[in-house]
Amino acid sequence: MWTLSGRALAPWAAGAARLLPPYSRLVAVLEPGATCTPFSTAELKEKPDMSRFPVEDIRNFSIIAHVDHGKSTLADRLLELTGTIDKTKKNKQVLDKLQVERERGITVKAQTATLFYNFEGKQYLLNLIDTPGHVDFSYEVSRSLSACQGVLLVVDANEGIQAQTVANFFLAFEAQLSVIPVINKIDLKNADPERVEKQIEKVFDIPSEECIKISAKLGTNVESVLQAVIERIPPPKVCRENPLRALVFDSTFDQYRGVIANIALLDGMVSKGDKIVSAHTKKTYEVNEVGVLNPNEQPTHKLYAGQVGFLIAGMKDVTEAQIGDTLYLHNHPVEPLPGFKSAKPMVFAGVYPIDQSEYNNLKSAIEKLTLNDSSVTVHRDSSLALGAGWRLGFLGLLHMEVFNQRLEQEYNASVILTTPTVPYKAVLSSAKLIKEYKEKEITIINPAQFPDKSKVAEYLEPVVVGTVVTPTEYTGKIMALCQARRAIQKNMIFIDENRVMLKYLFPLNEIVVDFYDSLKSLSSGYASFDYEDAGYQTAELIKMDILLNGNIVEELVTVVHREKAYTVGKTICERLKDSLPRQLFEIAIQAAIGSKVIARETVKAYRKNVLAKCYGGDITRKMKLLKRQAEGKKKLRKIGNIEIPKDAFIKVLKTQPNK
Ligand SMILES: Nc1nc2c(ncn2[C@@H]2O[C@H](COP(=O)(O)OP(=O)(O)OP(=O)(O)O)[C@@H](O)[C@H]2O)c(=O)[nH]1
Questions:
Q1: Is 186 marked as a binding-site residue?
Q2: From the CA of 73, how far away is ligand 1's center (Å)?
Q3: For 81-85, 351-355, 392-396, 654-658, which range has the lowest pLDDT when averaged over its residues?
Q4: Which pLDDT score is estimated for 622?
Q5: Atom of ligand 1 nearest to the CA of 107
Q6: What's the CA-to-centroid distance between 70 and ligand 1, angstroms?
Q7: Which of 189, 414, 418, 603 is geometrically suited to a Cys-Cys bond with 587, CB 3.0 to 4.6 A?
Q8: How far apart are CA 365 and CA 527, in angstroms?
Q9: What's the gap in Å between 216 CA and the centre of ligand 1?
Q10: What ipTM was reported for this prediction?
């Protein structure tokens, strides 16, 4: 049984073991308690001497929370309080650097910032890692935690504990990190911090006196968060006398400087000019620069064990900086760190260039983006209708959308995305087939390759344990929704008199697309959801085609449970009818299993006259409109003689909200 501070946890809390951070396995060798005079701002802007921070004056921590509970806002305040950034109204989610993060107001990629903080006459080095809150990005959270010894668990004073609060707490707890509960948004009219304190005590077994109540927005009581970081989070357990051993816990690709690795030093030190080796590739590099992220890269020439920073060493190829890799000094090999369990993709989709001449550009964009996001898996794929492309694996639908948006925004790539599918399995029925496929059980990530029933002894579908946290008044409706999604109830726990936590075993394909959306609308936005992998179960699966005037739409081929075929087919046809523009002729939309049509809708004929509003004989204006229409057509996907705007399929598939 897991315990926290010697206390036993609620029985349901004894979760499956997740990855432990390498730090927690090392023995502490702390340096004697030297103090140092604080850096002046001028010194900081120059090159700070990182040797002035003994291990005991370092704290590495992460901020974890449910979506929107205020992680990034708290990070802004901490950056301001420590003078890392100026106090201005413009500082909003400073660490959310990606365009997609700013547009959607969500954190997608974990970010690191080094803060210098003076407390009781000492200057401390604090490394803060801001993490994403959405379930799709929990892999980023696990990785970030590997470079930390403690976390700030932020909980909204009005919303209280939510599904991702629970999931993130256990990631931190199982990694044996110190947890500081921070109740945020106490300025809200409906804030009830005392109720949230009680929830934290009940669910996480953390005494309410340990909770810090703040308003990150107004800055109220934020200073006591920094003090708690120093007092309650232990310094890293590392040894500076040993030769260098650095963990690459993240990496980004810069067009001009190549790979920038985020590293946590577990042993020794690294300097500019050192020759280092990657334990993964065994390639040797010269260190071009090392430094801290403050929050932008600030060269320091040296980094010491216990510190977190960046390293640039002329790694140009996307495969050279593996996340989880260990770096060591040339001629001083060390035992590599355990690395990370690779992220398991939950959703697969085909990605094709709109125009095949764009194939190479798209290939290079995908390669570069996957370096920044190693949780995406890439398989080459091709289709008769769509040409050469890839089948990519994502952690969830939001992850897929964000990846697509980043391809467009950061690399100007326009792509066709096919229906997301979960990784099904098929157990083959005969020795001959097993010989042909070279395995007994095949994984199907492309519905077009779904094997026929005659070849299969049984189909298997992935399942997850889902956690729903909801106000009690919605329990009945939510239970009905879960049942309709073929879920089996496992547990029900009252967090307090008004809030309940439900645990269900769900088939993954029932929740990836629109479960979250339905849950939110059923509960007026109050219920939250999180899930984790729970293996496979047998299922009656069939392949369903969608046809437009008799032509199969490759983007929409899906695998469905037999029970659900009619409902799913009907819904897709209806949605397609709403998102397809009318054309000069009638369009028949059909859902079919083999040759049997199970649902049908019709789009009536219509002609769009772009010149309708052009009175008189302004020929240049007419030409302009016709040219614009022709340009628009280049972006259309043609199936038979039907022209379909690129986003029509996405509209059909996309039912999950942005958050
Ligand atoms: N009233 C009030 N609003 C706050 C406070 N802290 C954050 N917010 C608001 O809550 C919203 C979400 O804040 P973020 O800091 O983006 O939340 P987050 O947890 O980083 O969100 P993700 O990165 O998407 O997981 C924003 O609109 C903030 O302005 C607070 O103390 N009081």
A1: yes
A2: 5
A3: 654-658
A4: 64
A5: 23
A6: 3
A7: 603
A8: 37
A9: 8
A10: 0.97
